[in-house]
Write a structure and sequence with these properties.
The chain is built from 6 helices and 7 strands, in the order E-E-E-H-H-H-E-H-E-E-H-H-E. The chain is of the alpha+beta class. The strands form 2 sheets. It has a 4-stranded antiparallel beta sheet with strand order 5-6-4-7, covered by helices on one side. Strands 1-2-3 form a 3-stranded antiparallel beta sheet. The longest helix is centred in the middle third of the chain and has 27 residues.
Length: 208
């Protein structure tokens, strides 16, 4: 049976929430099957087992007769990676919020700057996801993502402290690794397992 039917939770090469069956590798979008089945049941206005089974059969037949083009956005769902990422973000939001608050009320004024942090991931989806993850943490705001070089430009505080700049880069690389391990493909996960690329000195510039 496993030769002819494969599900996305067992095969990371398939689009999320999908299954592939047959020798020709027909891929069915399971959320679409569920939505069409719901429409079928609503049309009959009666929730019965027979209507549900008939709705599933009709939905599968429609998807096979009129297949949609196979589009892979490069998104994979890794439950343990998602939990790890969520826990890290919650902890980092708290600690960063406390740090920023301390700087506002009791800290000395420091020079802010914009630094460029090269990433290891290359897909547009992962670049966007990493930028969103970094922007959710207080004290660091992504102001630009350069797709051609896979570089995020980050506004940071305490730019006059070299240790803080290096810590900001390490935090971005850590968030990149966790984000890719939560939603990335096997190729992207292999990329983030490699050492991060060295930052370019010209990427840093004082904030206005």
């Amino acid at each position: 049976m496993s030769r002819y039917v494969r599900f996305s939770f067992r095969d990371p090469d398939l689009p999320p929430l999908s299954c592939e069956f047959g020798r020709k590798g027909r891929v069915l979008d399971l959320p679409l099957i569920a939505w069409l089945t719901l429409i079928w049941v609503l049309l009959w206005s009666t929730l019965t087992l027979a209507n549900v089974i008939t709705g599933v059969a009709v939905a599968v037949a429609v998807c096979l007769a009129f297949p949609l083009p196979r589009v892979d956005l490069g998104l994979r769902l890794h439950p343990w990676g998602i939990i790890h990422l969520a826990g890290y973000l919650l902890h980092d939001m708290y600690t960063s919020g406390v740090k920023v608050t301390r700087q506002i009320f009791v800290g000395l004024p420091h020079q802010a700057a914009v630094i460029g942090v090269p990433l290891r991931c290359r897909s547009d989806l992962m670049l966007t996801a990493v930028a969103v993850s970094v922007s959710n943490v207080p004290g660091g705001s992504v102001i630009e993502v350069r797709r051609a070089t896979a570089t995020v430009f980050l506004h940071v505080l305490d730019a006059d402290v070299p240790e803080e700049l290096e810590a900001a880069r390490r935090k971005v690389w850590r968030l990149e690794e966790l984000t890719v391990r939560a939603f990335g493909t096997r190729d992207e996960i292999a990329r983030v397992a490699e050492p991060p690329p060295p930052p370019k000195p010209i990427a840093e510039r004082p904030a206005p």
